[in-house]
Amino acid sequence: MDFKEKKDKKLDLRKSMTDTIPLLDSTHQNQSHIYYRFNSFPFSNSVAVEMTTNILPRQLRSVFLGVDVGTGSARAGLFNEDGKLLGSASSPIQIWKDGDCVEQSSTDIWLAICTAVKRACDLGSVSKEEVKGLGFAATCSLVAVDSEGEPVTVSWSGDTRRNIIVWMDHRAVKQAERINASNSPVLQYCGGGVSPEMEPPKLLWVKENLQESWSMVFRWMDLSDWLTYKATGDDTRSLCTTVCKWTYLGHAHMQQINEKDSCAMESCGWDDGFWEEIGLGDLVDGHHAKIGRSVAFPGHALGSGLTPHAAKELGLMAGTPVGTALIDAHAGGVGVMESVPASDSQSIVDEDAISRRMVLVCGTSTCHMAVSRTKLFVPGVWGPFWSAMVPDYWLTEGGQSATGSLLDHIIENHVASPHLANRAASRRISIFDLLNEILESMKQDEGSPFIATLTNDMHILPDFHGNRSPIADPKSKGMISGLTLDTSEKQLALLYLATVQGIAYGTRHIVEHCNANGHKIDTLLACGGLAKNCLFVQEHADIIGYPIILPRENESVLLGSAILGAVASKKYSTVCDAMKAMNAAGQVVYPSKDVKVKKYHDAKYSIFRDLYEQQQKHRSLMAEALS
């Protein structure tokens, strides 16, 4: 054998060793023994080391899965026990819009969830055995199914796929007005009246307009509750959904607050007189079978966990614990409410600190969540809802029905939008980032002291989808003051900035109104898609005058959902314990210290408030003219 043959054989042997014995990496931390066997090569006096490893299986992590169904997509996120995101994915969902009617399909949503969950597990390199618990959150949309669990249409079209009335649907404005005229005692826990976005008006609309569907429905469910039912077969409803959207009186369960011994509770919080008075007395039949015979605190482990069928569709293990659900905004609250800087959390324990915080969940709409130990009635603001978000606390829930959707509307309906969108796409940045750059450039060019001054003669009332809080006027309309014939990109940037400011003035109005009625809010926490927009956050801080804490993890709604799974799995005894373990603060955005900034926004805020007063006068004048 010549030297070349010896060399080739030596390389072949080394290659065979490399191919069959993988390099040890960080994933093999549990290796127990390595045995060495020394062999002399036949062509050399050198010695090769052949390693035979006896490696124990990698220790499985404890991973918790959160699922969030928003208005436009279903998302899934995987978190470790410290609340750090390991992987996430989303899948779009279909939506049908026709005037005030907005509808979706539960079948389509479930398929999107299955796609998102599998993709998230792949991206996060998480095996199904590692998922120890699962939680769901969704918009407060109304789902109709028959006795077999099949969809029942809620659409004028008769399309059986469309079995969901989406939260933003305003078809039931007249029904809401009639319900509010009843002056039922339960209405004091809804800010004085139900919104057309709540379930009773929508139910009444279906009964009055789609009688065949009404007779076919076996279960009316909030979307979050339908998801847990689909996953586990357990029809137990959440205190969050029933209290916040169905007029259920959660404080009927005050004696059952011990989460450590959580159980499904007989639904004793329905006011039968209310349902009968508004014309929905048939929903009381069968111990409220169609709307919820049993309820549970969020995070309570449902049934026997995932059914084999649901587990197969999701790519998870049968029996994986599933926690009672939350509405998506409330999951955002759970995912961010304890996200305070370490310096604050490690100081003297202040049990009332959580009651001075308000969470802004900023997406298609914005929800404003504040909690208190005592019940506080705030006119025009939903609540107080007992244990609807943080156990044993009363929740006050303000909101703006169109924020992210309003910004999209303003931008997409401007003539300069297509060109601007192409520019942003070519640079692989968002259109918001590009608009922010244009505003910064305009500030430099015009010598403005700060960006906000660019809109000194443009003012917007952002009630393009009514006013949810604190005026609670679904008939309120959006208003823009200061338009010209300019159709340039710069003019679009100004419209965008003025809309952001209008939204922030609306939040200031809600905060001031809550504080005037007993709250003591002095700190804001923001999450959701809009919270990733630095200009949006800074304008809110400057306009409201409070610091805004951003969470470490951007996906706070997914984290809040995952917390439900962690509690269901018994990793944490209570939702509060899980929040403290899994929430963490990121950046803190402070309001400007420049007194000129405050003076400027105070003036614009005064104009903002006056716009609605003008609208009321205009409405009154026209009503009188038509009478």
Automatic annotation (TrEMBL):
GO terms of biological process kind: pentose metabolic process
Record keyword Plastid present: no
Pfam families in UniProt: FGGY_C, FGGY_N
Span of domain Carbohydrate kinase FGGY N-terminal: 64-335
Transmembrane segments: none
Entry-linked Gene3D superfamilies: 1.20.58.2240, 3.30.420.40
GO cellular component, one term: cytoplasm
Molecular-function annotations in GO: D-ribulokinase activity
Top-level division of the source organism's lineage: Eukaryota
Residue intervals of the Carbohydrate kinase FGGY C-terminal domain: 359-568
Keyword DNA-binding: no
Keywords: Kinase, Transferase
Family assignment from sequence similarity: Belongs to the FGGY kinase family.
Protein's recorded name: FGGY carbohydrate kinase domain-containing protein
Organism taxonomic ancestry: Eukaryota, Viridiplantae, Streptophyta, Embryophyta, Tracheophyta
